[in-house]
Design brief:
With 329 residues, this protein is α/β, with parallel strands linked by helices. It contains eleven helices and 13 strands. Helix 6 links the parallel strand 3 and strand 4. The radius of gyration is 18 Å and the shape is globular.
């Protein structure tokens, strides 16, 4: 079943890197979805679909899920984890993504996965132990990261992955990442959590982050310890650059991780010409179909913590930093 899933991801254009394919072939997804395995069988476990694993008892809104393998493969290739890398994941989920990261980082690497939810982290840690994965799973506020990383340059993370959407990029993530390191995070460009997110791969530069790839996606919002969606400004972002992100695709007109809040389950996202969500299965944007990691997306997103407002077509004040977006060229 793992080979069938990888063949599908490769055929559909979601994965190109052999190391990422081998990670999917190595890690048994069923270990992280025991209830699905028991109720629906192995075929259901390996469908290219997001699977909700926890819901709010009162509203039945999804609280946690196992992301769709297609968007996981895209994000793993964007992150470019290499053997020996120190990796921080915000959003433990089932632990499946952390297990894939651990395979990519190798025995000489380190993966820390963080989440605010005790039950989520306990289940993820147990599943990871059952396959002898050396991921460190912690209960912590992912918006703060691991403060100790900022104090010692030698121990800063090489890679940082966030599996929940956010309207801001906390300074802690910048401070705790090595210079030239990569951050992959779904940036929410509207007030509505279920609208289009720009899943962005950033490289750390002197005064912030520069995007090197962007792909559409849908993720649950990042949550704080009190359960509310992380939004340091609480200001409207309704006039965000939807038009710019829409042009990003020809198909468009441990530390422990932060738990996911209500909203979309993790999956690639497509929008119809009229603006309503269309099929959740969409070919990756042109620049992500090739194997070259230096190919820039047609949309450029920057984050700046110093030096003032960036000279981009759209800019958004996030309190201690700016987010700038330039449209497709």
């Amino acid at each position: 079943m793992r080979r069938r899933l990888v063949a599908h991801l490769r055929r559909s254009g979601y994965v190109h890197e052999r190391r990422v394919m081998e990670a999917f072939l190595t890690v048994p997804r069923e270990v992280f979805l025991p209830e699905v395995l028991a109720s629906a069988g192995l075929t259901a476990v390996y469908r290219d679909e997001a699977i909700v694993t926890r819901r709010d008892e009162a509203s039945q809104a999804p609280l946690s899920s196992s992301s769709q393998p297609a968007i996981m493969a895209l994000m793993l290739e964007m992150l470019d984890v290499r053997p020996g890398h120190r990796v921080v994941e915000i959003g433990a989920g089932t632990g499946y993504n952390a297990a894939l990261l651990a395979v990519l980082a190798g025995s000489s690497g380190l993966v820390v996965s963080m989440d605010i939810d005790v039950a989520t982290t306990a289940a993820a840690a147990a599943a990871l132990r059952s396959i002898d994965s050396r991921v460190h799973v912690l209960v912590a506020d992912g918006t703060q990261g691991l403060p100790g990383l900022a104090r010692d340059r030698r121990h800063r993370a090489d890679r940082w992955m966030v599996t929940a959407s956010t309207t801001a990029v906390p300074r802690a993530w910048y401070d705790q990442l090595a210079h030239g390191g990569r951050l992959v995070v779904p940036v929410r460009l509207t007030d509505e959590p279920d609208q289009l997110h720009a899943v962005s791969a950033f490289v750390k530069v002197d005064d912030g982050f520069d995007s090197i790839a962007v792909t559409p996606g849908g993720f649950m919002p990042l949550r704080r310890v009190d359960g509310t969606a992380f939004d340091p400004t609480r200001r409207s972002t309704a006039k965000v650059a939807k038009a710019a992100v829409a042009r990003s695709s020809p198909d468009e007109p441990s530390a422990h991780a932060i738990a996911e809040g209500p909203g979309d389950v993790e999956r690639p996202q497509r929008r119809s010409r009229g603006g309503a969500r269309a099929s959740t299965r969409v070919r990756p944007p042109g620049p992500l179909r090739g194997t070259g990691r230096d190919r820039m997306e047609s949309v450029r997103i920057v984050v700046r913590y110093a030096g003032g407002k960036p000279s981009c077509r759209w800019t958004f004040d996030r309190g201690d930093h700016w987010i700038g977006v330039d449209p497709a060229r």
